[in-house]
Design brief:
This is O-fucosyltransferase family protein. The chain is an alpha/beta fold. Among the domains are: 175 residues, no CATH class; 181 residues, Rossmann fold, CATH 3.40.50.11350. Helices cover 36% and strands 13% of the residues. The structure holds 2-acetamido-2-deoxy-beta-D-glucopyranose (3 copies). One 2-acetamido-2-deoxy-beta-D-glucopyranose (NAG) binds next to loops.
Length: 638
């Protein structure tokens, strides 16, 4: 919206450059146990959220925070630039002294912040549960970008996130970035009984994980610390938990406000207003849909759960039939299920049920509407891919539009309270946190997720170099890669195989299938994604040979485990990284969460990818490979 204001206009879109070669097979393996897994994971999510109690989210007044960490950020906007060197060996080797505080770069002036906001109707923000891992935080963020955009507001995001681990002794990373006790910083108790190492985390600038200049070159976004500066408040008072401090954040006037007693007004969208049971939250209700159902705005000026209503309609035979086919506890069903119902009904004899337009007409005439969202991977929502569009149908009366309900709110700050992906039934966990009423809006969201919400250029550049090295190792042939999630998945009993030996054997068996796919690949296709063009290297480069080395991204850390994986022919991140890479990238490469995104970005380039359907990492890799133009057959998740 303010391209000239974006501090460092995004350089030539790097996705072109990032995306090179591969293919994928999204195998529809019958979902034997996926439903059970879904239930288990959902259960654990609920468990997780019990820690999200109001006590956990207690507003932290600035004076409460001082005990949190000894090393508060000096830099108000938490930008980082790489220091001169990074240890390449474990902690026993003497380290160079920590570098001086990084220079402030890419920091907006208050005038620039003011101008970004001036192009919109005000601020939109959410409670960001920073105790979640990065991949979950990013879903809250990308849904936030969508929601703020719908309301024509400037999104306020946290300026930092928490990383979970250091490659070396914690004290090594703590010399470079703020170490915190996660329980204190977030206000959750779930880590209290864990060993010291697992209680601690690192507060790192969000710009280490996300190309913020690029994203805000396209969407009006500021960080909470920028918001605070705009209101004359100390950026160091940013909420440590990601929770939007209801009082503190609106306690000071905007510094450009001549009336010094005029503090920002605030409107809270209560969490239970967002998608109460029995309703379907959508982006907006198009005019044609409003007319079909005679949607009316509530006459009273009161603003709350919803701003309008659908006058009751008499049920029809068809709407009754559809309703009786509705899955238990849901307010939406899949397009194909609805079509099946119509085919069986009397209407099925009268109209051509194979013609989608006809089906849609019948649905409309009977009080139902078509909604757009994304297919899940193997029936599970953990991978959160945006590459497979899906249609669903719902009774019109269940539909609530985000724009319709909240665009007219004219408070300075609009806050969507709490999480919209917790406490929900697994099937209702949505990409973007809502459904779309029109296909182009769905496509636009997918496009934002893969083209605008990307890793920082530094991560992508390093990953590209590493991918090129993988190719060289295999004499220029396509190379294959896999993700072996072990760490916490071992503890939870979700890892694919208990031992590293058995796990890497499984990987090799899957990659053997992958090699055959690559050998016979022709008639290239892509996922249904804006701007995706088939990556021709998939057919111009030679396919892998049986004994080719393959790349493995893993969080396995035990030396024996890593040795077993390497002995099987796998190349690991540490094998590809040189001392020059580490120096050029700097200390963040010691943070395991940053390494994890470098590994993901390496896998974007893989000729074939095998991953774990229950891991969100697989979803990120799928999305980005899709954007690169990888053939859907060149990927396998199970
Ligand atoms: C968003 O709001 C701003 C400020 O009210 C207005 O100037 C702009 O035209 C709006 N943009 C859209 C797309 O409605
Ligand atoms: C990490 O470093 C600290 C301080 O140098 C030391 O006290 C501690 O024992 C080390 N921990 C491990 C696991 O090596
Ligand atoms: C300043 O703002 C306060 C709070 O909004 C309002 O009550 C007051 O009337 C304003 N004063 C002037 C001079 O506009």
């Amino acid at each position: 919206m303010n391209p000239d204001l974006s501090p460092a206009p995004p350089s030539q879109p790097s996705h072109r450059r990032i995306f090179r070669r591969c293919r994928a097979v999204l195998r529809s393996i019958p979902l034997r146990s996926s439903i059970l897994f879904g239930a288990i994971i959902f259960g654990s999510l609920v468990f997780y959220t019990t820690f999200l109690s109001p006590r956990g989210l207690l507003l932290r007044k600035p004076q409460d925070w001082h005990g949190l960490s000894q090393h508060e950020f000096l830099n108000p906007d938490l930008e980082y630039t790489s220091p001169l060197s990074t240890p390449t060996t474990p902690a026993e080797i003497p380290l160079p002294p920590p570098p001086p505080p990084p220079p402030i770069s890419n920091v907006l002036t208050v005038e620039q912040i003011r101008d970004i906001v001036a192009s919109t109707r005000g601020f939109f923000t959410r409670d960001y549960s920073l105790g979640l891992g990065w991949n979950n935080v990013r879903y809250i963020l990308d849904a936030g970008v969508l929601q703020a955009n719908l309301l024509n507001r400037t999104l306020v995001i946290p300026s930092f996130v928490y990383a979970r681990g250091c490659l070396y002794n914690l004290s090594v990373c703590a010399d470079y970035t703020t170490m915190v006790n996660k329980g204190d910083a977030i206000g959750w108790d779930e880590w209290r009984d864990l060993p010291y190492e697992q209680q601690m985390g690192f507060r790192i600038p969000i710009t280490l994980m996300l190309d913020l200049p690029r994203l805000r070159g396209q969407y009006p976004i500021i960080t909470a610390s920028e918001y605070l500066r705009l209101h004359g408040q100390d950026p160091a008072t940013e909420s440590s938990s990601g929770f939007w401090s209801r009082d503190w954040y609106i306690s000071n006037p905007n510094i450009f406000e001549p009336n010094k007693t005029k503090t920002p007004s605030q409107f809270i969208i209560e969490n239970h207003w967002f998608d109460p049971t029995g309703t379907n939250r959508v982006d907006y209700i198009p005019q044609a849909m409003k007319s079909r159902g005679k949607w009316e705005r509530h006459s009273e000026a009161e603003i709350g759960e919803t701003a309008g209503y659908w006058p009751p309609e008499d049920p029809t035979d068809i709407s009754n039939l559809l309703m009786s086919a509705m899955p238990e506890g849901r307010a939406v069903m899949d397009w194909y299920a609805a079509k099946g119902v119509l085919r069986e009904s009397r209407a099925g004899l009268e109209v051509d049920v194979n013609d989608d337009n006809v089906v849609e007409g019948v649905l409309h005439a009977n009080g139902w509407e078509v909604l757009h969202t994304f297919e899940s991977v193997l029936g599970m929502e953990y991978a959160k891919t945006v590459v497979q569009p899906m249609r669903q149908v719902a009774p019109r009366s269940t539909i609530r539009g985000f724009i319709d309900d909240y665009y007219h709110v004219d408070a300075d700050v609009v806050v969507l309270a709490g999480e919209t992906h917790l406490y929900r039934k697994p099937g209702s966990i949505l990409k973007g946190a809502l459904r779309f009423t029109e296909e182009p809006a769905r496509a636009k969201f997918a496009s934002m997720v893969v083209h605008s919400f990307v890793f920082p250029p530094k991560v992508l550049d390093l990953a590209e170099d590493l991918a090129n090295r993988m190719r060289e190792i295999n004499d220029g042939r396509l190379w294959m890669g896999a993700h072996m999630r072990r760490g916490d998945f071992i503890r939870l009993g979700w890892a694919m195989e208990p031992t590293p030996e058995a796990h890497v054997k499984r990987v090799k068996e899957r990659l053997q299938i992958g090699r055959e796919v690559l050998e016979h690949l022709s008639d290239l296709s892509t996922y249904d994604l804006e701007g995706a063009k088939p990556d021709l290297e998939q057919v111009t480069l030679s396919p892998p040979l049986p004994d080719d080395r393959f790349y493995v991204a893993t969080d396995e850390r035990s030396p024996e485990g890593l040795e077993a994986i390497g002995d099987a022919g796998a190349v690991l991140l540490s094998d590809l990284l040189t001392m020059e890479d580490r120096r050029a990238f700097g200390w963040p490469l010691m943070i395991t969460d940053v390494r994890a995104i470098v590994e993901q970005a390496v896998l974007f380039h893989s000729g074939f990818f095998y991953g774990h359907a229950m891991s969100s990492l697989a979803g990120v890799v799928t999305n980005m490979r899709a954007a690169r133009g990888a053939d859907p057959r060149t990927m396998m998740l199970d």
